Amino acid sequence: MNLPENLNYTKDHEWVRLEGSIGVIGITDYAQGELGDIVFVEVPPIGRKVEAGQVFGTVEAVKAVSDLYSPITGEIVEVNKEIQDSPELVNKEPYERGWMIKVKIENEADLAPLLDLAAYKNLIAK
Question: pLDDT tens-digit profile of 76-125?
Fold first, then answer.
């Protein structure tokens, strides 16, 4: 399983990568593996505000539909249009081409409760 060190993780299996004041958000390799083949991803449009801990979209897989929870609060500044046409990218490249949204971080304190790599590994080992 691929788990990059440079990310922050949530207990709901989302990740966030910081790019200055922007947070790039997606789901973890573990999450996509549990879901199975992803067939559709629904995310809000650019300009929509998301709240830390709140649902911002859904992922539909052959097995189930799962909510996506934002790790941070802020405004969506970009959505990954590539996964709209090719949702399987979330399965193949969850940390690269399979990202979902980019959010302008409103409050850096949102990052404090997120998990580092060691804590996330402990979570999924249970």
Answer: 999 999 999 999 999 999 999 999 999 999 999 999 999 999 999 999 99
Tokens of 31: 């999450």
Topology of the domain comprising 8-125: OB fold (Dihydrolipoamide Acetyltransferase, E2P) (2.40.50)
User: Which residues pair with residue 67 across a beta bridge?
Assistant: 58
Which residue is it, tokens 């500044």? 77
What's the predicted TM-score (pTM) here?
A: 0.95
Do residues 98 and 89 make contact, with C-beta atoms less than 8 angstroms apart? yes
- CB–CB of 126/83 below 8 Å? no
* Token code pair at residue 44: 């809000």
